[in-house]
User: Fold this.
Amino acid sequence: MAANCYIIGCPETKEAAVVDPGAEGGRILRRLEQLGLTCRYIILTHGHADHIGAVGQVKEATGAEVLIHREDGKMLTSPASNLSLYVGMALSFDPAERLLEDGDTVTVGKLTLKVIHTPGHTPGSISLEVGDCLITGDTLFAGSVGRSDFPGGSHQQLIRSIKEKLLVYPPETKVLPGHGPTSTVGEEARYNPFLTDLF
Assistant:
């Protein structure tokens, strides 16, 4: 389903977090090895199947802790909740080691990742502030926004999350979405057709 997976690595300590390992676990593990990184955390922006599919493989190989927002926690253990049941799979994993809340921080080596609760795509959707970047999961895309027609979704809540939690960042802040190309906060504030009525 062409979901983006991100590896966040500390250049000094070589600790890393893998964000949204949706598939191709072997490829993710090879990239970690190429970069000389040790995966300490698997962080999930939300619990849909296309973002969690390789959780088990990456966790088994690295011993990393799995982190997800409290509101999406059950999606790791329920194929119906994570929607895999409806696409010919039945993904079910162990419960997360840590349930996240808005404002939490995750320390990866000398890097600090800030958790931003951005519900709307799912009740527990999060974005991550990492330096001058925002990893936005399926909340905000380049030129689009996430779907809100799945169970637990809300378009009104999604737009509010983007307006109040993401577009408040400086215009040059990079947007790294869950699907598709990168963008910036300024580009989305100015040109995203789903958001232009906010200004």
Notes: Helices lie at 25-35, 49-52, 55-62, 155-166, 185-191. The longest strand covers residues 111-117.
